[in-house]
Amino acid sequence: MEEILRVEHLHKKYDDLGVLEDVSLSVHKGEVIAIIGPSGCGKSTFLRCLNGLEDIQDGRVILHDEIINPCDDVKKLQKSREKIGMVFQSYDLFPHKTILQNVTLAPVKVQKRDKAEVEAEAMELLTRVGLESKKSNYPRQLSGGQKQRVAIVRALIMHPEILLLDEITAALDTEMVREVLEVVLSLAKEGRTMIIVTHELQFARAVADRVIFMDGGNIVEEGAPDEFFDHPRTERTRKFLDNERFTVTEQPS
Ligand code: ADP
Ligand code: MG
Fold first, then answer.
1. What range does the domain containing 242 cover?
2. Distance from the CA of 118 to the center of ligand 2, in angstroms?
3. In percent, how much of the chain has pLDDT > 90?
4. Which ligand approaches the C-alpha of residue 88 most closely?
């Protein structure tokens, strides 16, 4: 499969704090990569470096044949951000705009697409995630799971080549986690290229073609999901997985 994105020897620091040290990764078209790892290990920072939301100290990020980070051409950066969609834990919807307006704003204003065409696509996507009846509502009138599905639609309508999902279910109650993960699973099935940071290990196993474990500023281990979860090769991965499983079984039933 065609390589879409390549990360070469990426180094990222916040002032004196080294967060990422020499991270390299290649992403192919249609591939779903799950990134797991302890809190604070740099997963969000890594995703943000991929679409140019963070500057980097060394290395580079290449989308197709273009270097998109480092990049000081604002127009080029804007273009590459459109190709790399991102969804966050916190939805970030505009509170004073309706769901339909939230979804159609960027394609009309930024991509200068035809409003009627964009609205038709927005309704198609909202229908797909079960929210067509909410088009005239405001974000505060929606549940967390519904808002997160809107945030996914808002990313999809830009026609990104890659979707980055950063712990998009972390703020949701169990029932809503499921409805959001089902949408992500359906995107994976239709061949979307995605990098998914998640604490949901079972979901990572089900959705991913490749699982990456990050710790201490680098990729410690990666592999096909079954191999990765059943036969972790490093002690650090084993410890992390044991700990996560323990945490899960400790929850009251
Ligand atoms: P993760 O997503 O894996 O939990 P983050 O990428 O959010 O980890 O954070 C990695 C490290 O970088 C943490 O030590 C965090 O405190 C630090 N960090 C994250 N964002 C910033 C920032 N904007 N300025 C300074 N330090 C930051
Ligand atoms: Mg994070």
1. 3-250
2. 31
3. 95
4. 2
